[in-house]
Amino acid sequence: MVEFEVRERVEADEAALAALREQVADGGRVAFTIRDHVPAADVRRARHPDSVGVIAEADGRLVGSGWVRFDRARIGGQVVQVGFLHGLAVHPDYRRQGVARAMTDFRLRRVEARGPGVVAVATIQRGNAGSMANAEWWASRVTGDLRVTPVPMRRARPGGGGGWTVRAAVRDDLDTIVAELERRYRDFGVAPVTGREELTAWLETAVGDITEVNSYVVVTDRRGRLLAGLGVIDEARLSEMRVRAMPYAMRLAGRALGVVGAGGVMRNLSVTWAWHRPDSVAAGRFLWQTVRWRMRGRGTALVTTVDVRDPIRAMISAPGWLPSTSIALVIRSSSPWDDARLLAVPS
């Protein structure tokens, strides 16, 4: 058994952390590494300022890392404080030696220090046996099937439109957007908090000199009434994914569709906070197809992460034949649980 030390991350660790991110692939069905275009520390400060990093050192070098970020989430219909565990990585030469568990324990103790009502949450890619095994000793529940699908950009302008107008959201739209998101997530078991304060801060996020990392797009009718909306995170400006392994048929499909580029590179934009009025599914679909067309120059795909039971899939359609993977939510909470409720990534 190797001897290692676990400690809190400091600024001087950043270069070694970036190198580790390029070396260590996720262990799920789709294995990938991350290459940063801007310092990861700048991204964390901008997106999740209340974060704590942990690293593991052995043989005089950095061999593991992980993060816990603190935020609010809606769990079981209540807004609670959460500690979101993410970014766990261990160098292949040091796996199965207790490194992952020690870093997880470090982060869980940080969650516990915030108070008894703080809920620990994580996401794990299905098929990542190591992370699943690591979660079994601390989680009260591993649940859900959230399908992660990179949907290729459109090569042609969508037809139709029916008098609808797709445009960027403006400040006067925010109250309507917030009300619709509250309606959408009201009965979810796990969901993000989507108040005006959260949406405003999200839209104003800047990473160093890079502004407009996040954008929100809506579709209106002839009277200007909002019918649907969705948020887009321009991940491709901050980093790229490099696919190291995926099922052969999935890799072929990804290349044919332009989702996976040369060298296995994926430049993704992520979709979040999507909604449509109950009578406006068609308008929502038109918004989705228009965004796929208008943002075609920004990346290779728009990535959706949606509970397989979620009706929003009728709007942000991702055909089953597209390459995809699945993630589960891992939760430690003493609150009652209802498996019938839908799930969304909370933060």
Automatic annotation (TrEMBL):
Membrane-spanning segments: none
Domain N-acetyltransferase residue range list: 4-158
GO MF, one example: acyltransferase activity, transferring groups other than amino-acyl groups
One Pfam family per UniProt: Acetyltransf_1
Gene3D superfamilies: 3.40.630.30
InterPro entries from the UniProt entry: Acyl_CoA_acyltransferase, GNAT_dom
Protein name: N-acetyltransferase domain-containing protein
Organism: Micromonospora wenchangensis
